[in-house]
Every structure is written in structure tokens, then in C-alpha cells.
Design goal:
The protein contains twelve helices and twelve strands. It has 337 residues and is of the alpha/beta class. Strands 2-1-3-4-5-11 form a six-stranded parallel sheet, covered by helices on one side. A four-stranded parallel sheet has the order 7-6-8-9, with helices on both faces. A two-stranded antiparallel sheet has the order 10-12. β6, α8 and β7 form a beta-alpha-beta unit. α1 packs across α2 and α7 packs parallel to α8.
Amino acid sequence: MSRKTTRLEDIARLAGVSIATASRALNDSPAVNDRTKQTIWKLAKEHDYPFRRHMPAGPIGAQGTIALVTPRPQGREGRISDPFFLELLAGVGEAARERGCDLLMSHISPANYEELSAALNTSRADGVIFLGQSSLHSAFNRLVDADHRFVVWGAELPEQDYCSIGSDNISGGRRATLHLARLGRKRILFLGDLDPPEAMQRHRGYLDALGQAGVEIDADLIAPAHFEVESAEAAVDALIRRGLDFDGVVAASDQIALGAVRALLHAGVDVPGQVSVIGFDNVPFSRYSRPALSTIAQDTMKAGRLMVSKLLDHGGATAGRSERVPTELIVRETCGG
């Protein structure tokens, strides 16, 4: 025997409201109070009413909904478990909560304009925060002409038409390198991929600082490594086995810096006695590693507030100008001084 299908009329009768009210409630209409909405949603779920197509983007009563989308990564792995990703997610989450908004974490990972457009135009959210630029700068510039309800976490790049929020990567890279130069380090290694926009800018700061400190630039001291501990550890291990002489490391991320420290200690190199190391991000493990990791801190709480504000108050990509969040040098045991 087939089970009887629950109808909208049934839900209205059980809730003691009109069919019109039940319909409005299922569509999250402001004409229906929250208590009635909650009752009707509960009844719809209990009686297997096919209501998912009517569901609002978030729980009833939210002031709005923001979708988080992570483009296919360039350099970073882009996993939710990435320590810096979690810190940034916390910053956005706290800011959204302060504004009474819900967050939707999208499963998609766009890699081109069409997929970015689909992420924006098929979302029921009020706007989208893209957590990362990857290699999609031109695609974002194109997207803003079609729909401006988005903000991007990332670098500010030449001829940029969309709004991005990110750290002052050039200043951070410069500050880390100058600190090592002031400690007397002359052979400072830059460790990290140069393709991702943020790492590229940190490398630019590194080069600026070497020039400012009067330290000769050596191409052999620029070594690629992905944003993961294992990649950086393997890269530094290979440099040590090659016999490359270096007394300082500026890493493009804390994970890269930790990998460098692991390789150095494994090879019997004293950190910071023989080689000083500075990371970038100030993720929680940096202060608990041994030796504790010196790093450049990014203010993820301020970044989260800025992204949410740009999206909700300024309409997203076109109305608000891009902004850089200041960075701060955190001196711990891996470089001292």
C-alpha cells in the first residue's frame, strides 16, 4: 500500500492556519511571525512534506545569509582543515554572527569564470565571500560586470575592478626579512611558491628588504615549496644535502616555516643559533611549536568584519574600495632578537 502524500492543506490544518499563511511561512515571508514559521517547518518535516524547494537559505529569523566559496586553490591546498583557513573562517563567522547572519559553506570549488558565475547566481544567499583568488583575477574582473554581490579574500592586483580584502603582504614580507637582516643574517632564503598572488607579494617584500639592507640578491636563495609542512621539509632537506649556505629563512606561511624548522633540526642545525626562521600567518600552532615560531600575524578578525561589512553595507564588489589589513611581526624563539 502506498503512503499518502502530505499536502499543503494538511500542514495548514495541523498548524491551525490558512493555506495562504502556511505557504508564506514555508517561503520565509516577513508577513508571518517567527513562532508560526517554526511550527509549520516542524510539522512539514515531521510529515515528510516535500518542502526543501521552499526552504530559505538559512534558519528562520536570520537577518541574512552569506555563502562562503573557496576557489580551486593555487599554492594552498584549500582544505577546510588548513589552519589559516580556519582562522579566517572564524573571523568571518564572528562578523556574520554580530550582524545576525547565517553562513553557508559551499561544496563547490570554482576554477573558471563560468563556475564563479554559477556559484554566485545559483546561491540563495544575499551575497558570496570568495575565500581566495587563485588564478582567477581576470575572471573576477569579468564577474563584477555581471553581478556585484561578492567580496574576495586576497591580494590587491593591478587593474582590479572588484573589491578584495587581504593583508599587507608586501609590508609583511619586508618586515620579516628586515628583522633577520638586523640580526646580522646575510644569506636569507625565501621559501614558498611564487604563483599565488599573496605569496608573490610576500616575495616582493623580501626583495625590497634585501635592497634596503644592502644584502645581495641570490637566485639560489629563492626556493619553491607548497603551503604544507611536508613539501617545505622536503625542499629544505634537499637544499641542505646540496650544501647550500643560508643563515635565515623567510617562509610564505607558518606551515612552510614549520617544515623548514623540522628539516633543519633533523639535520642537526641549531635554530635560531645557526639559522633563524620566520613564518607568515600566526596560526595557533606557531606559538606552541618547539622552538616557538616567529611569524607575521594577519588580523583575521578585522578581515572578517571588513568582508562582511563590504558585502552587506556596500553591496559587494563595486561599491566598496579594496582594503589591506595591517600585519605585525611576532618575535618568538625561532629568530629572537
